[in-house]
C-alpha cells in the first residue's frame, strides 16, 4: 500500500480531504476508535497536526520529497490506537 511505503520511506504525501488538496508528512497509520485513520503533520494549506479518516481521503500520491522523520508532539505523548499498522521512525 502506498501509505505504508510513504511512512517507511519518510516521503511526503499529497491527498484530497474535505474538498481541499493537502500536503503532509504521514506519521501514524492504524485503527483508532474503530476507524482506519492517519495522523499526519500537514504542511499545506495550513501547518499543524491533523487526523485523516482514510475513507474520506482521495487522490493519495506519494511525493518524491522526503522529511526527516518523527516530530515531537506538543503534549509529548502518543495517542492510543486500537491497532497501529505503521509509525514513522525518529528524525535523523
At a glance:
This protein is mostly beta strands and 92 residues long. It has a single domain, classed as Roll (SH3 type barrels).
Structural features, described:
- The structure is a single chain.
- Helix content is 9%, strand content 55%.
- Strands 1, 2, 3, 4, 5 and 6 form a 6-stranded antiparallel beta sheet that branches.
- The radius of gyration is 12 Å and the shape is globular.
- It has one helix at 2-9, and strands at 11-17, 20-32, 35-44, 48-53, 57-66, 83-87.
- By secondary structure, the chain is mostly beta strands.
- The chain has 1 helix and 6 strands.
- The protein has a single domain (2-87), classed as SH3 type barrels (Roll), CATH 2.30.30.
Features of the shown structure:
6 strands; mainly beta; six-stranded antiparallel beta sheet; single chain; globular; 1 helix; SH3 type barrels; 92 residues
Amino acid at each position: 500500500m502506498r501509505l505504508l511505503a510513504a511512512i517507511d520511506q519518510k516521503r511526503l504525501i499529497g491527498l484530497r480531504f474535505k474538498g481541499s488538496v493537502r500536503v503532509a508528512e504521514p506519521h501514524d497509520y492504524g485503527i483508532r476508535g474503530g476507524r482506519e485513520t492517519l495522523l499526519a503533520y500537514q504542511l499545506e494549506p495550513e501547518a499543524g497536526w491533523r487526523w485523516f479518516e482514510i475513507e474520506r481521503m482521495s487522490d493519495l500520491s506519494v511525493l518524491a520529497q522526503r522529511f526527516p522523520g518523527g516530530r515531537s508532539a506538543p503534549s509529548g505523548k502518543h495517542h492510543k490506537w486500537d491497532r497501529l499498522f505503521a509509525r514513522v521512525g525518529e528524525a535523523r
